[in-house]
Design brief:
328 residues; alpha/beta; DHBP synthase; Rossmann fold; 2 domains; eleven-stranded mixed β-sheet; four-stranded parallel β-sheet; 11 helices
Length: 328
């Protein structure tokens, strides 16, 4: 059965209320959503993705006022950050309310909460009226989805309905901040930078503790294509591409330069030089290169600067994940 793609909010709400799964757009990536208050619906998310049961989900809300429905301790720090960045690409880790399902939290005493800014996500959440648990709408460990068509190709009839809101504006997952204490702790980099978090909080970030909560997207191997991905400096990339070409291998390249060498069997994609634009295009670029039928994907190492932190985080995990993939 082919998954249904459309723009019908009322239909999406009906699907959610009967325990079904709806993929929907956010400004970061597409999410695979189920009623966060329905254990059976949440369980279906894990089955559809092939997601480990101890890997927590993020609950999406229509408004920051709903944070108190899901957390019994919305700290002053959380309130500051929510006022500054919500709706937007920020997930707050807070102490869970007693009624929140262990399925949602991965059995932890914390819960991830986010108010997305995308107008379609906002319309869905307001019409639904409750929390929607939604990890990225892809198979676990694979490249995240940033268009409705990506979702359909990735999940097929594992999802009941896909709300089409166009391409995601930001293109990588939300920044995750542990806001349970007095100091913010960055648990996953994203569009919102360390400097922005510290300015809003009025205090420096604290280092993550060994007992920090598990959060989505923090495994060493994640966001991976089926094709082996190698992250290399420019000179090494060109040398390896030439060697593989001489061996008759087909090579896909994501480079910072548009100057493509004249090599046989080379698929060359020039990436934007701007960090935000690179992030916006990243998953679509990896999907295109993964579909090119090459023997390897070579990615030029982006700059090691703070504005590139989220991109570098995703690429490192994608490279590790591709090496674990049986298809690689």
């Amino acid at each position: 059965m082919t998954v249904e793609i459309g723009r019908d909010i009322a239909h999406a709400v009906t699907v959610l209320r009967r325990g079904g799964l709806v993929a929907f757009p956010t400004e970061t990536v597409y999410g695979l959503g189920g009623d966060a208050g329905n254990a059976q619906a949440v369980g279906r998310i894990f089955v559809a993705k092939g997601r480990p049961a101890d890997h927590p989900l993020i609950v999406h809300l229509a408004d920051v006022a709903q944070l108190q429905d899901w957390s019994d301790d919305v700290t002053p720090l959380a309130q500051k950050l929510a006022r500054k960045f919500s709706p937007g690409p920020l997930t707050l880790i807070l102490r869970r309310a007693a009624a929140v399902s262990d399925l949602v939290t991965g059995g932890q005493d914390s819960v991830g909460l986010r108010v997305p800014a995308h107008p379609v996500a906002q319309a869905l959440l307001k019409a639904f009226g409750g929390g929607i648990a939604a990890p990225s709408a892809n198979r676990f460990g694979r490249i995240s989805t940033t268009t409705a068509q990506h979702v359909a190709e990735e999940l097929g009839d594992r999802v009941d309905y896909v709300l089409d809101g166009g391409a995601s504006e930001i293109g990588i997952e939300s920044t995750i901040v542990d806001a349970r204490g007095e100091q913010p702790v960055l648990l996953r980099p994203g569009h919102i930078s360390v400097r922005e978090i510290e300015n809003a909080a009025g205090i420096a970030l604290a280092a993550p503790r060994p007992d920090a909560p598990r959060v989505p997207g923090a495994l060493a191997a994640h966001y991976a294509p089926a094709t082996t991905l190698l992250l290399l400096e420019a000179d090494l990339l060109l040398e390896l591409a030439a060697n593989l070409s001489q061996q008759g291998k087909r090579v896909a390249v994501l480079a910072m330069s548009a100057r493509q060498p004249l090599l046989d069997g080379l698929s060359w994609l020039a990436a934007p030089a701007d960090a935000a634009r690179y992030a916006h295009d990243l998953y679509a670029s990896l999907r295109a290169l993964d579909a090119a039928g090459c023997d390897a994907i070579l990615v030029e190492q982006p700059p090691q600067k703070i504005e590139w932190a989220a991109v570098n985080d995703r690429l490192l995990r994608a490279a590790a994940g591709s090496r674990q993939n049986p298809a690689a």
